[in-house]
Write a structure and sequence with these properties.
The protein is of the alpha+beta class. The protein has two domains: 56 residues, no CATH class; 59 residues. 45% of the residues lie in helices and 17% in strands. The chain has a three-stranded antiparallel β-sheet with strand order 2-1-3, with no helix packed on it. Strands 4-5 form a two-stranded antiparallel sheet. Helix 2 packs antiparallel against helix 3.
C-alpha cells in the first residue's frame, strides 16, 4: 500500500500502487498502518508526513464566526452591565467614574473590531475586560 502525500505533508489517499506522477510523494506503508491512520483520520486527528515519519496531531477545535458572535454578545452584555453600574454609582453616590467608563468604551470598541482584526475565528484572542 502507498500513502499519497501532497506538498504540505497531508495524506491525500491510500493507493495499492504508487502514482509516480511527480506532483505527489508516494510512501510505501503496511496495511496495518493504513488501517491505523484511517482510524485516526476518521476520529478527527490530523496526520502529516514530516521528516520521513507520520505525525498524528490533535484536531484543532473548529470555531465558527457564529460562535464568536455569540461569545462577543455575552461580553458586550457584561460590559454594558459594568457601564450601567458605573453610571448608577455616579448618579446615586456622586462618584466620578469617567476614566473607568472610558476604559469600558475602549473595551467595547475592541470587541466590535474582532471580526476585522482576525482573519479566522479560531485565531481570535479576546481583549481583557477592564473590570472583574
Amino acid at each position: 500500500m502507498y500513502a499519497v502525500i501532497n506538498g504540505l505533508g497531508h495524506i491525500l489517499s491510500f493507493e495499492h500502487e504508487p502514482r509516480n506522477d511527480g506532483r505527489f510523494t508516494d510512501v510505501e506503508i503496511s496495511p496495518d498502518l493504513v488501517r491505523e491512520l484511517r482510524a485516526q483520520r476518521e476520529a478527527g486527528f490530523v496526520i502529516k508526513y514530516k521528516d520521513a515519519e507520520f505525525v498524528v496531531e490533535a484536531p484543532r477545535h473548529v470555531v465558527t464566526w457564529e460562535q464568536i458572535r455569540e461569545q462577543r454578545d455575552t461580553k458586550f452584555a457584561e460590559a454594558d452591565a459594568e457601564l450601567f453600574r458605573l453610571i448608577d454609582d455616579e448618579l446615586i453616590n456622586a462618584q466620578d467614574h469617567t476614566a473607568s467608563k472610558r476604559d469600558v468604551a475602549t473595551y467595547r470598541k475592541e470587541l466590535r473590531d474582532v471580526p476585522q482584526t482576525f482573519a479566522q475565528p479560531q485565531d481570535v484572542v479576546w481583549p481583557t475586560p477592564p473590570f472583574a
